[in-house]
TrEMBL record:
Residues 30-90 form the HTH tetR-type domain. Residues 53-72 bind DNA. It comes from Kocuria soli. Gene3D superfamilies: Homeodomain-like, Tetracycline Repressor, domain 2. InterPro entries: DNA-bd_HTH_TetR-type_CS (IPR023772), Homeodomain-like_sf (IPR009057), HTH-type_TetR-like_transc_reg (IPR050109), HTH_TetR (IPR001647). Keywords: DNA-binding, Transcription, Transcription regulation. One of its GO terms (molecular function) is DNA-binding transcription factor activity. This is TetR/AcrR family transcriptional regulator. Coiled coil: none annotated. SUPFAM superfamilies: Homeodomain-like. It comes from the Bacteria. The keyword DNA-binding applies.
Amino acid sequence: MSVCELFHTRYVGLMTAQTTAVPGPVSRAEETRQRFVDAAVTLFREHGYGATSMSQVAAAAGASRANLYLYFHSKPEIVLEWMPTLRPELDQIYLELDTLGDHSPSSCRAWLDRLVALWRVHPTELDAVEQATSEDSDVHRHRVELCRRTADGFHTVHRTREGSPLPPDVRATRRAHLVVLILSTERCISSIVLHDAVPEEEAFLDALAHQWSGFLTN
C-alpha cells in the first residue's frame, strides 16, 4: 500500500464527524456560504489576512455586508469553516514521517525540510490560520482538535516499535506529547516562513528534528 493510500485509509477512519452517505444536492444557503468562503480565501491570497475586511469579502462575493453577516460574523469564523480543507495536505506529510523506517535526527530533518516547503507553497493561507488562531478561541480549539486527529493517525501513539498495543494511559500521554510537538513545530515554521523571525533557521530546524527523533524512537 502506498503512503497516499495508507494516509487515506487512516484519515478517513478518523474523520468520524463526516457522514459516509452520498451527499445530496447543495442548497442555495450552502452555495452562498461557500461563495463567501471562496471570496475570502482569494482576498487573503491577494492582500493578506490582516488587510482584508469583511466589507471586501461581501463585495467580492457579490453580496451585501448584511447578507455576509447572516453566515459569518468575523474573519476567524470564515477561517474556521475553511481550515479543515488545509489539514489533509499537512496530515499526509506527518503520515510520511510516521511511516519512515528511519527516525534518526538527519532523517527527521529532511522530513522537516519537506514540511517547510509545503508551508512556502501556501504562505497566505497558513498565515490566515495562524492569525485567526491567535484572535479567536474557537479557531484555536478547533485547530488543537485537528492536531489530535493527526496524532491519532500515528502508529507510534498506539503501539510499540515491535507492534504491541500500548496501555491506554501510555497512549494518552504519547498523544498529548505529540499534539504539543505538532503545534510547536507549526508555530516555529510559521515564524520561519511567514515572519522571517528566526535568523537561526538551521539551528531551530535541527533542534526540532532532534525532538521528533527522540519522540519517535522512545
